[in-house]
Specification:
348 residues, two-stranded antiparallel sheet, 54% strand, mainly beta
């Protein structure tokens, strides 16, 4: 197992990156960054930056795509969304006092552009409802929800099995309208900046944060399966245990999110490590008066090819693309045709 020590990198630093639904239904990046970088049993401090790009531009329902007419003509649906582009830059700092323990802090900064059509849910559908004059847009850039995760991998002498326990804090902007619609609840929620809905609040599920404190629990295992190949499997569950949006008629609780990833790493040359992941996630429905309950649950699977490269001593860069191979979404949701992740880390 010595070759794993070449990757004295993120260990648990990428742990939360596999649970980045980011308050936007089932859209989020599910890449396992900790596995991408290689689990580490080396003590020290590690600092990294990761960039995630998620472009939701395809309306989907169940296992297939849908047309705007299907959304509008369904009497149970909500607004007709157009596009959501999210860009996350996450600063990670982790500390491992020895081969058994690791503590990681992840601080995301989110830039998000969202657009949807106003007053287009009046059936029957006609093309005039897609006129650009009906399009309302928003732009936000702010701190997201910070995560703190501890990992322990001292169960086996090889340190190749570990468990994780962490917390997500409500540090990002969040909120929505109050119960009687005369004001807002939360912390500086984002509003539409242009179009017919200018000045109105963006959906609570699309805010930079959820307003909830979540518990994160997970486990991972990795093993050399031949001279040049390593395999891994990991899983995480994230669930809200407290929420600041708890007023009657103005409450919101994000759905639970679980992610399981398996993959292979080709380590013939530790300086360049191609790899392939399969990431599967399941999100339950958001709950509360401010939740878009019917459009917030689903199961998705991605195939994620990528590579990790040793740029210099103790410095590594990585890049991945996620390609959806399966989705079963409740209601009508915007979904990405692909997502991209790139990062750099340095061990001290």
């Amino acid at each position: 197992m010595k070759r794993h020590l070449y990757f004295a990198t993120l260990a648990a630093l990428g742990a939360a990156s596999s649970l980045t639904a980011h308050a936007c239904a089932t859209c989020g990046c599910t890449l396992s960054t900790d596995a991408a970088m290689g689990y580490s049993a080396t003590a020290g401090v590690r600092v990294g930056l990761q960039y995630d790009y998620i472009d939701q531009d395809e309306l989907r329902h169940g296992t297939g795509t849908v047309s705007p007419a299907q959304v509008v003509n369904d009497p149970t649906t909500g607004e007709l969304e157009h596009r959501t582009v999210s860009r996350f830059t996450t600063l990670g700092v982790s500390y491992s006092p020895d081969a058994r323990w690791n503590v990681a802090l992840l601080v995301p900064y989110l830039v998000r552009d969202h657009s949807s059509y106003t007053d287009t849910t009046s059936a029957p559908f006609d093309e005039s409802q897609l006129d650009p004059s009906n399009l309302s847009s928003s732009h936000s850039s702010s701190l997201g929800d910070v995560k703190l995760i501890a990992s322990y991998q001292g169960f086996l002498p090889t340190h190749n099995f570990g468990v994780q326990l962490g917390v997500k804090l409500p540090t990002g902007r969040y909120g929505g309208p109050n119960a009687d619609g005369t004001g807002t609840v939360g912390r500086n929620p984002v509003t539409f900046s242009s179009g017919p809905s200018a000045g109105e609040l963006l959906d609570t599920s699309l805010q930079p944060g959820t307003g909830s404190t979540d518990i994160i629990a997970g486990a991972y295992y990795y093993q050399a399966i031949s001279q040049n190949f390593d395999a891994f499997v990991n899983g995480q569950l994230q669930a809200a245990v407290a929420t600041k949006l708890d007023q009657a008629g103005a409450d919101f609780r994000p759905g639970n999110l679980g992610v399981v990833s398996v993959g292979l790493r080709y380590e013939a040359d530790p300086r360049i490590v191609p790899q392939l992941q399969l990431n599967v996630s399941r999100k339950s429905h958001d709950q509360g008066a401010l939740a878009d309950v019917q459009d917030s649950a689903g199961t998705v699977a991605y195939v994620s090819p990528g590579v990790t490269v040793s740029a210099s001593h103790n410095t590594f860069v990585y890049a991945f693309v996620q390609l959806p191979v399966y989705s079963r979404l409740d209601g009508y949701q915007l979904f990405p045709r692909w997502t991209a992740t790139a990062g750099i880390s340095h061990a001290f």
